[in-house]
Amino acid sequence: MARGGVPPASAPGTEPLPRRALRKLLLVLGSLLMSLYASYCLAGSARVLTREPARIPLAPGEEGAATPRDPSPQPQAAGEGTKRLPQAVIIGVKKGGTRALLEFLRVHPDVRAAGAEPHFFDRNYGRGLAWYRDLMPRTLDGQITMEKTPSYFVTKEAPARISAMSKGTKLIVVVRDPVTRAISDYTQTLSKKPDIPTFESLTFKNRTTGLIDTSWSAIQIGIYAKHLENWLLYFPIGQILFVSGERLISDPAGELGRVQDFLGLKRIITDKHFYFNKTKGFPCLKKAEGSSKPHCLGKTKGRTHPNIDQEVVQRLREFYRPFNMKFYQMTGHDFGWD
After folding, report:
1. pTM for this entry
2. In contact, 63 and 142? CB cutoff 8 Å
3. What are phi and psi of 293, to 5 degrees?
4. Which of 109, 117, 325, 338 allows an S-S link to 149, with CB 3.0 to 4.6 Å?
5. What are the E-state strand segments in 39-105?
6. How far is Cα 188 from Cα 296, in angstroms, rounded to an integer?
């Protein structure tokens, strides 16, 4: 030992064997760990590159978004389908034949529709698009998601809201002679509230002067031209299909052919799907969706209308005539109500 108790420094290459072996082992282990970490990082990058890109929630006002609460749809297991926002909406009109149209369309294998009327764009808009989407059925690639809520057509805010969801949404309006439609509307209300005033008394603000009460919803809904003007602020006329409620009864296959073309579907629903029920006065399906049995609309459809004073009916026809003429011009289609 050197003077002062300090051990002499080892000469280069003369380090004790156990210490050199330990250092070499640590270097080998470190190199191995670095290799493993690099392999893990590369594998992670590969997973990111092959995984479907994350969908970024859209901001309010962007196409596909209406409220801040709009998480993107989550893909389901293979074969189950995905819940999607509707690509087509039957927006009206009440007592025009919307239920019949939707029931007939359900026969098509590429159409999936929500059951009950969602009333999203008029009553439930604050719930957000995620809530709305959850009401939709699951669809596979190539299938169309639909819903129908007839009150949308007369709801002032509905066009802007549907446009905010998707400017490409296809819209379908089932229209019917506005006088007959008003009487049918009244008949439905009468069945629920037998003590309501007569149709005649509700029609006029003043029976003596013959002034029509346009604030009564049964009358107001039938001013189709007025409501359509609001929709044309947000959608081109070519994106709206007008279905005749009368022809939906007299020639259901013909009207369904137009609807299938409009939706870009193969014409699968034809004459062979229908038979006419003389008792109800409506066409019925020989086989309903998912069934081998004939299917007619429920007992609430095809109610017998009360007898209405023909003078009142004539006065209503005169009232609606200029609005009907304007509607024919706007749509390029004469529905023959006069």
Report:
1. 0.75
2. no
3. -105, 155
4. 117
5. 82-83, 88-92
6. 18
Strands 170-175 and 88-92: parallel
What is the pLDDT, as a whole number, of residue 106?
94
pLDDT digits (tens, 9 = 90+) for 50-85: 333 333 233 333 333 334 344 445 444 445 899 999
Tokens matching residue 308? 């209405």
Token output for 5 = 């108790």
- Distance (Å, rounded) from C-alpha 128 to C-alpha 149? 17
| Span 282-291, average pLDDT | 75
3-state secondary structure 290-333: CCCCCECCCCCCCCCCCCCCHHHHHHHHHHHHHHHHHHHHHHCC
Query: Which tokens go with 280?
Result: 């109800």
What's the maximum distance between 2 C-alpha atoms anywhere in the chain?
135
Token pair 């309903």: residue: 288
Partner residues linked to 173 by β-bridges:
92, 242
% of the chain beyond a pLDDT of 70: 73
**pLDDT at 168 exceeding the cut of 70:** yes
Identity (one letter) of the amino acid at 218?
A
User: What whole-number distance in Å separates Cα of residue 219 and Cα of residue 95?
Assistant: 12
pLDDT tens digits for 93-124? Answer: 999 999 999 999 999 999 999 999 999 999 99
C-alpha 18 chain-centroid distance:
77
Q: What is the pLDDT of residue 20?
A: 62
Q: Which ranges in the chain belong to alpha helices (H)? A: 17-50, 98-105, 129-134, 158-165, 178-192, 199-203, 217-220, 224-231, 245-250, 252-262, 310-331
Q: How far is CA 318 from CA 23, 178, 212, 246, 312, in A?
A: 105, 11, 11, 20, 10
